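Let us practice reading a record.
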Amino acid sequence: MRILKRPKQTGVRTSKLIFGLVSLLMLGLVVVPVYAAQMVMRDQAISDAIEDEILFDHAVAIGPLDISTHEGIVTLSGTVNNIMAKERAERIAETVKGVRAVVNEIEIKPVHEWSDEEIRKNVENALLADPATDSYEINTRVKDGIVALNGTVESWEEKELTINVAKSVKGVMGITDDITVAYPEERPDLEIKAEIEQALRWDILVDDALIDVKVDRGK
């Protein structure tokens, strides 16, 4: 008996293969624009959220800024009249969900032009007037609106407080920090570590379970 073999349907298989490849290509052409559109919408939502947060923030008068977002990276630009407003805008942007990084291109343009000598006197007066910093031995120099601080304090918190008081003075364009921290007595690293961990646990903005703390000779 002669057995007849069915001829291979090469043309049909080739057509199916071509159809499948075309389908995948068309699917890719559809998926890519949809994904790109979703990214643009998400970035715009981040920019809108930052703008709203800045608008309703009453801690520092910031004013309108240009806010752009690309793939979660936010760029802030525009002008403010003091350094505290510039830093406050950056901190607000960093707290918005979806933000991966912040590029701060905000320029400081004081309403009134202050001479370096006026700024120096105002910074010294501000440090003396603040009950928390009036006893610190801090020297102040000013060049083109940039305030250089040097001296000695007894803790990191005192150092940060001194810098913040100087930043709050009108006309200050920037801070150069040369302040030295000299503790009156050495504290064990374990004691410092325990205190930092406790502070993190009480901070509602920080998930302390995700943070490891190590202290080596006070650092």
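A brief commentary: DSSP finds five helices and six strands in the chain.
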